């Protein structure tokens, strides 16, 4: 049979078997990778242990077995075919906004975890190496460190899946996902450097190796970011062309890896990870929701295929690899298993509490930490890196044997020992049990559901004239069982306290908010960026409740409306360089987000009355509603401040919001008419074309004019009125318009003064030491002149208390005007005298 047909037969047959494994793993309650590895090892035994069992038959089954045995998966195939897909697909599925909140802890955990695991495991194996082989050499140390770096990569799929099933705080899940993503990148970069040290000969230069590690890692970040942004710019005009958009992302993954790894000498792994994260963040806003759903599904499918095939082919090499095992290999393996668990425990039980102590991470219970430690499974990446070592032509046979046997044995231990005992460990730690509060919530929710089902069922029976007794009887029996369960629960644990009921109510509403935001996005009412921001905020509310209760909920809810990192960066760019476009874009998105949040809070208050009152009682619903009213009040205040400064823009945003909602309703109504056979396919197509054209008119948010034209701002400052046109034009050229956000500091006490500020619109608060209340300045006022005239540090803090449009005049230009314009000097001196005497 031709090699091409052999390969196609092997891949097709294996994918057919793989398709049966996820339901099998679910039934066995085992991680999917464990079942996958078992199948691969089984094939390996079949091929290498009893390959002659099937003879030379020509049937399809024999042909398939022989075809699988003839497929050779090289390390180059893994690096250049499978690895970009695995990394990009994982990065594409990360909630980037949530991850950015914990980027510091994630990078610390990832990089430090890799270094700690490599160092501890490497030294432990080096010590055992000395016992078996005499005096350990420096080369032996590098071999042991190389081995340790290979197993430093972790597969978080099992732990993340279990955490989601257990309802663990979402921040913990994202921490594990993000750590693993950068953990792989850091470990592969370290592996590459150690492999280079081992093959280049001579004395290793650790300083140079450290420098190379930093350059490769940082260079990969730059290359990945640049490639992803280039792809994002290209993908924008392709909006709606789903096939082209998916193809471009696939191209991005491979070109980024090849460019970084092969041409630029940086880490292609890091580059692909960063490209995937940037595309997950910015690319989502540049494609339609429908296209993104298809793109996400295609990448999940590609990742499933790549991970399954690489794992199967690598697992098939296990039997022949272990046939070469020696006692010295098992001694190294024992040292590696113990030291790797110790290193993982040091990271989980040492670093995580430190991060929680400084506020960079939520506090994580010891039971969850034990699961994280024991659940550090290894998978396809470790096996493939070991394969790269065994294929390296410059390495001696004994090094290849050590790496192949020890890494294979370690991966098998994590899969078949740790993986199979992970859920029993969770049961032992009682993490799979609902708390009394959750049991109460379950019973109340099911009871409410049964009541609604019974009512609806009786209406259906009445409408069609059916007897309802037989259908209602099971519901009544289930209701009686539920009531008894609730009585037993309350007799054992006591009735729910008011605080517990409030916790349940707030938790329910936080989940409801998240669902509503996703619904708004599916309806095309809000943008991808808005839905990311709002769902991330709803997730933080849920995490806050789980870790700190109602008080933490209120704190996080208040923090939600503070300017985000991107807006603060845009304001800094505007303040420093006068760039208006980033500020305009970020403010536009903030206004849209506030509008959606206000709409959702209104709906949530209705939901509280309709659903929480029957489930938790009026007192609890009122307590929950009080917190919603407080949140709504803050949102209204934020929107009112916008309306004062940009009334026309806010009206345009809200109008567009309603227009989009109306178009989506019309779209659903049209589809319903077709499904009810009231219109034909031809009429449906014509109506849909009309809807698409109207959607294009409201697809982009309204443009926000910040109103920072210098000529218009100067006209609002009384100090400059009445000047001759040429003199006014001269002053206009010296002034720089700037926008300041409510609560944003403008001047800080004690700093060197180099600017005078003229208020064109808005208001500021001047906090003078010794005064009980701050001095308020509004349109037409100016401040900052005392420091320049008297040549002394600033004597007060000045903060914007509304959206402020200011005109800035630097020290040199101010001094020139102050000394050459008598009227201006007299006006400023009068203001200084008045302020100093106050």
Secondary structure layout:
Layout: H1 3-18, H2 21-28, H3 32-48, H4 60-70, H5 75-92, H6 96-101, H7 103-133, H8 138-150, H9 157-166, H10 170-200, H11 206-235, H12 242-263, H13 268-282, H14 289-316, H15 318-322, H16 327-357, H17 366-374, H18 380-390, H19 397-428, H20 436-464, H21 469-493, H22 498-522, H23 528-559, H24 565-577, H25 581-616, H26 618-645, H27 647-675, H28 681-697, H29 710-714, H30 725-734, E1 736-740, E2 745-747, E3 755-761, E4 764-767, E5 775-777, E6 782-783, H31 785-789, E7 797-800, E8 804-810, H32 811-820, H33 822-837
Antiparallel strand pairs: 1-8, 2-7, 3-6, 3-8, 4-5, 4-7
Helix pairs in contact: 1-4, 1-14, 2-3, 3-14, 5-12, 5-13, 5-14, 5-18, 7-8, 7-10, 7-16, 8-10, 9-10, 10-11, 11-12, 11-13, 12-13, 12-14, 14-18, 16-17, 16-19, 18-19, 20-21, 22-23, 22-25, 22-26, 23-25, 24-25, 25-26, 25-27, 26-27, 27-28, 32-33
Structural overview:
The protein folds into 5 domains: 3-70, no CATH class; 78-361 and 368-428, Na+/H+ antiporter like fold; 434-494; 497-706, no CATH class; 710-837, Sandwich (Jelly Rolls), CATH 2.60.120.10. Helix content is 74%, strand content 4%. It contains 33 helices and 8 strands. The strands form 2 sheets. Strands 1-8-3-6 form a 4-stranded antiparallel sheet. It has a 4-stranded antiparallel sheet with strand order 2-7-4-5, with no helix packed on it.
